[in-house]
Every structure is written in structure tokens, then in C-alpha cells.
Design brief:
single chain, 214 residues, alpha+beta, Protein Transport Mog1p, Chain A, 2 domains, 5 helices
């Protein structure tokens, strides 16, 4: 007969004392008892490997591209190209006046040194802003070029409000886009009577949206 006894390690030890005829069946039974009676749990599968990104690799960022040196842009239909006045004046365009306005508007493109903030302050000094008006400034990015949009409305006095060499011009608007290029910014300055400038705003936005590195 077959005798089974549990050992210290928790498995069953089988002692076989059988006739040869029944020994084979007993051995098969004993093997099943040993397999079922061993308390060792089957090995768990190894955890799947995971890709770990180091802190240095996860915080690395691509280097920002350098500002371009020169730009090109599309000229809206209906804007008249004017002759350039000097080396700093890259281009100039005349915008036909709106009905009831006393003059056409003009957009000039120049490059000058100094900070963009200083340039905007200089423009503000040329205006006596209309009551309730303030300088409006927003920033957009066009093809990786940072562009500041500025709008001033009021009495335009040229060199400085009330101190210009020409007559004061009532109800004028300055609408400008300043593109951050190196070594000097590009200034797209649209100046004219309010109705004319406001009517040209859509074309101005199209021009700004077409700015791209040369």
C-alpha cells in the first residue's frame, strides 16, 4: 500500500509498499499528491520592463530659433506702392481715404534701433488720446516671429502732441505691427484718419499674417 506523510517543508512524502502490479498506479497517484500538496506557489511572471525617462531627458527642451534678420510680406490689393524715402524706410504704401475723411492713410515699413517699448512710448507722445481711449497693445506670433500690435486714437501732433511742426490732425489713428527681428525690429506703421484706418484693418491683418522670414 501507499502511505503519505507531510514533511517540514510542507510537501507530501509518499512511502510505497506495494506489489509490482499496483506499484505503477501508486506512483502516479503519489506524484499527483506531491504536486498538489506542495504549498509553494507558482512563480509570478516577471513584471514587464518599462522605459524610464530620466529627469534630465524629460526636462530638455528644443532651443528656440533665433529671430530672423529680414522679412517679406504680401501687399494688399488696392494699396499704392510709394517711393522709399531713405535707407531705413524699407517700403511705403498709400491707402485710399474712406468717404468723408480728409486724407489718405499711409503705411510705412522701417527698421530702427532701440527697444520696442521705447518706440511705442515715442508714438504715444505724438498723440493726445481721445477721452476714454488708451494705448492698446497685443502680441501675436506669425511663423515663429513675435509681433506686437499697437493702436492709438486721438489728436495726432507729429513730433509730440501739441508740439509738432505741422497742424494737429483730429480723429487720427495709428495702427502698427512691430516684428521682433535682429538686429533691429521691423515697424509697420499705418497712420491716417480713423475711418480710413479702421476700414483698412482687415487688409492690415492680412499683411501682418503674411509676414515671413526672407
Amino acid at each position: 500500500m501507499a502511505l503519505a506523510a507531510r514533511t517540514r517543508d510542507g510537501c507530501l512524502r509518499v512511502v510505497v509498499s506495494l506489489s509490482a502490479r499496483r506499484r505503477t498506479a501508486a506512483l502516479a497517484l503519489a506524484a499527483g499528491l506531491v504536486a498538489a500538496g506542495c504549498k509553494g506557489a507558482p512563480a509570478e511572471p516577471a513584471p514587464a520592463s518599462r522605459d524610464v525617462v530620466g529627469a534630465q531627458g524629460s526636462s530638455r527642451s528644443a532651443t528656440a530659433p533665433a529671430p530672423p534678420a529680414s522679412l517679406v510680406w504680401d501687399v494688399p490689393a488696392g494699396w499704392q506702392v510709394l517711393a522709399q524715402a531713405g535707407p531705413m524706410r524699407l517700403a511705403a504704401y498709400r491707402i485710399p481715404r474712406a468717404r468723408g475723411d480728409p486724407a489718405d492713410a499711409e503705411l510705412s515699413v522701417i527698421r530702427v534701433g532701440g527697444s520696442i517699448d521705447a518706440g511705442i512710448e515715442g508714438w504715444k507722445a505724438q498723440f493726445a488720446l481721445a477721452p476714454g481711449e488708451s494705448a492698446k497693445r497685443t502680441r501675436v506670433v506669425v511663423r515663429a516671429v513675435a509681433v506686437d500690435i499697437v493702436r492709438l486714437q486721438g489728436i495726432y501732433g507729429g513730433a509730440a502732441a501739441g508740439h509738432g511742426s505741422g497742424p494737429l490732425r483730429q480723429d487720427y489713428v495709428l495702427l502698427a505691427a512691430i516684428a521682433a527681428t535682429e538686429p533691429q525690429p521691423h515697424y509697420f506703421k499705418l497712420l491716417g484718419p480713423r475711418r480710413t484706418v479702421d476700414a483698412a484693418r482687415a487688409d492690415f491683418d492680412v499683411l501682418v499674417g503674411s509676414i515671413r522670414p526672407r
